[in-house]
Specification:
Strand order of the largest sheet: 3-2-1-24
Shape: globular
Distance between the termini: 49 Å
Radius of gyration: 19 Å
Order of helices and strands: EEEEEEEEEEEEEEEEEEEEEEEE
Oligomer: single chain
Largest sheet: 4 strands, antiparallel
Helix content: under 10%
Number of helices: 0
Structural class: mainly beta
């Protein structure tokens, strides 16, 4: 059956994406070009209080510090929905949070009028599917969670959907071919290599082939129709290894390792590049970025962020630039 609200009413599954309007002309000859801009959001540790947003423009090849984040937190889920960036849950150093904030790249402003989650949770996985924002797993400060909530921006409400088969925190969540995938993470006792797939139509989670390595706090993204899982750590050490899942063969295969070990790494795709951003190498929190070349199947250095973002997230927003 489909997803239902608390009253058992059937919910619509699709939303029409919002379109960003072009900026007015300055009177000089210009060309409008659509680019995907990367935003690194939040993150916090006692040594690195990265309470700002910073963005990377492919036109200038530079990172730029933007608006400060309203609330210091780490372990929040970060995702883009209709050209707005959401930070979901997290931990402020004292307790797990249910709050959700929304950032507008166009205005460089934060809004606090987003409905909260049903309860506080940190180290969640988030992804957008069918015009909805999903918050998956995490922990509430006491136990690891299997519960899943879905956000409807038009109604400004969170709705419960079917829970995962396993409890997972510090997991990767991606959307591919109309389904959600929950990848790895930890069950609160040990790192996992297991994977689950959520069918919206059936409101059910199905078991998928496991990864070759156990990974928590991994980077996970969809690139060229495949799921990439990189970095993270097992129960002993941080990883630089990488692997990918091909849904056509239903198999995972190993890839060339990254140049650096990266636990708590953010993996994203922008302007045709798969990029591993930041993370922790077992000694220090990283500002460095690596990009994967699918032709050579190798990683290369891709510059540095301005700041470290331990426990932060990244989001990509398509924006119009005038050149």
């Amino acid at each position: 059956m489909g997803v239902q609200d608390d009253k058992g009413e059937q919910l619509a599954r699709e939303r029409t994406p919002h379109k960003v309007e072009s900026a007015p002309s300055s009177g000089y000859p210009t060309t409008c070009r659509s680019v995907e801009v990367i935003f690194a959001v939040g993150g916090w540790s006692p040594k690195h209080a990265a309470c700002h947003v910073e963005c990377y423009s492919p036109l200038t090849h530079e990172w730029k510090v933007m608006a400060p984040i309203p609330r210091q937190k780490c372990g929040a889920g970060v995702a883009t929905l209709e050209h707005l960036i959401y930070t979901v849950g997290g931990h402020d150093g004292t307790s797990c949070l249910s709050s959700v904030e929304r950032y507008s790249p166009k205005t460089n402003e934060w809004r606090h009028d987003v409905a909260p989650l049903s309860g506080g949770r940190s180290d969640v996985g988030v992804a957008v599917l069918g015009g909805y924002l999903y918050c998956v797993g995490g922990h509430d400060g006491v136990t690891c969670l299997s519960t899943v909530e879905r956000y409807d921006a038009e109604e400004n409400r969170w709705f419960r959907v079917a829970p995962m088969n396993s409890r997972r925190m510090k997991l990767g969540v991606v959307a591919l071919n109309g389904c959600l995938y929950a990848v790895g993470g930890s069950d609160g006792r040990s790192a996992l290599n297991s994977v689950e797939r959520y069918s919206v139509e059936e409101n059910t989670w199905f078991t998928c082939p496991p990864m070759g390595n156990c990974r928590e706090s991994l980077g996970c993204a969809v690139f060229e129709g495949k799921i990439y899982a990189v970095g993270g750590r097992d129960d002993i050490i941080e990883h630089c290894s990488a692997e990918r899942f091909d849904p056509s063969s239903n198999q995972w295969s190993p890839l060339t390792p990254m140049k650096s070990k990266r636990n708590k790494v953010c993996l994203t795709v922008a302007n045709g590049h798969l990029m591993a951003i930041g993370g922790f190498d077992g000694m220090v929190n990283l500002q460095t970025v690596e990009a994967f070349d699918s032709e050579s199947r190798a990683w290369r250095s891709f510059g540095n962020m301005k700041n470290r973002h331990p426990g932060g997230g990244v989001a990509v927003v398509e924006m119009n630039a005038f050149v």
